[in-house]
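Here is one chain, start to finish.
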Amino acid sequence: MLDNELIIAIRAAMLAGETAAGIAGTPIKQAFQPVQQGANNAPSAYMHIIGHQRIGSVLRSNEWNQLLEKMVHTEIQQYATTVQFTILASQDPASTTGKTAGDIANLMAYILQNEVTLETLREDGIGIQRITEVRNPPFTDDRGQNEFSPN
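Its structure:
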């Protein structure tokens, strides 16, 4: 599966699960695009592929195709692809009811573990091996305010 196909499938499954997780309408964008667009003002999730790891060795098979009347050679390689979501959500210190970026990151992990999402991705030939911890690195935003960027 090509990277763009993987990103489209994961994004669609995540968007479908947002309502059940209580974060309906949270945009999910592809991070690190060739054109700088700037960050959304609304709470947003940005996803990107960190890397690919080959699993096992190449599976090679030969099978006779009666319709074509010839031998068809196939080679298949499985990959484990690491995808990262980074959440940006400005926080108002006066509000104690709004979701923090960390809350949204944990809800995104919930969506990925949801059986409906797993089945949707499985239909596209995608499986989830594991979801690791949510890290919460701090940074200073463009307004000089301290924020967190959980991923």
